[in-house]
User: Fold this.
Amino acid sequence: MSEWIKLASQVIERCACLAECTEEPGHTTRTFLSPPMHEVHARIRRWMEECGLQVRVDAAGNIRGRREGTQLSGTLYIGSHLDTVPQAGMFDGILGVLAGIALMESSGPYTFPVEIVGFSEEEGVRFGLPFLGSRALIGDFTPDLLAIKDREGVSVEQAITAFGLDPKCIPAARAESAALGYLELHIEQGPVLESRNESVAVVDAIVGQSRLTLSFEGRANHAGTTPMHLRHDALAGAAEWVQTIERIANQTPGNETPGNEKQGLVATVGRLQVTPGATNVIASHVQASLDVRHPTDFTRKAAVEEMVTAARQIAERRALSILVEPHLDQASVAMDRGLTNLLEQSVAACGFAACGFAASRLNSGAGHDAMVIAPKIPAAMLFLRSPGGISHHPDESVRVEDVAAALQVGHNFLERLGGIQ
Ligand SMILES: [Zn+2]
Assistant:
């Protein structure tokens, strides 16, 4: 068995070991600083100390293991998150932290300091606000966040205090201003790498996102006595619009990066609320959600514009009225070009590049800690294949050879980064 496979097997075993730490017996559910996070920290602290890292937990609840460099340099942060969605799998986030520790085990000190960070919060499950951990790292954990309450009425401040930490020290969680970079290894959580039959890919950008609610208003009436041509059926209008959304998305390609053409615009109507919602009544009111994502903000905004116009046209033709409420307009976040190119060279040097010449590139359709960190610290991300494209589900898995590939690439990346220091 190769050394990398052996190390990858250990990473997977440790992911399984942390999956035992849960709020919900029989499942893995771990939200921001809930009691099982104490046990997660205890286990991670042991593994970090075994490979000689100096360990501390900052006031936002991030566990951090540091190894100094041999020269004066900015720190390279390697991390991901330790919280989970309800009834989660074993690898989302956690794998990136344990892979970082494995990288420290497999190599001596570098010229630059390295800090492995296990973020306390990324998913936003407990407080409805994601990225509490990475916000603290970049100094964006503003005092107003402390007042947000969970469903039990417990505030962020109380949760931090109950965990044994001091909320007043959150500013000290901030990364140094001259940080060298941030590297995150994460499962893809989608089916693209599997469809390309590749182990890993370098992330280009984290896509931008729009969220809106559209309400179609018609007139309720008797399903038996109202002829088809005299109806104002809100649901029939909404259904026509959903089909239009799918057509517009199918016709909007991805960005210019080779290999990414098929990663085009994605648009989803995931929720329709129909009123009055009876078998024998024509729908008077439909509230529809719309989620649109694309790596290029201009393309995304133009598509949203086209979708809203289509809704207005459909409503007019069917004598319905329409209300459009935008909720979110989140810009796309590009990864750092220099670090991303270096990571790409590492993928190629380790022999995992697509077609043998260039590393596969991918856009991330989901948010990650790297998205929050990138505006302040040069960031790069490596995705690992997600078997079956499954994530946020107990069936979430990884292949040991893909984890070994990611570790090998990560190791090569650290060596290269040392070389150009
Ligand atoms: Zn994640």
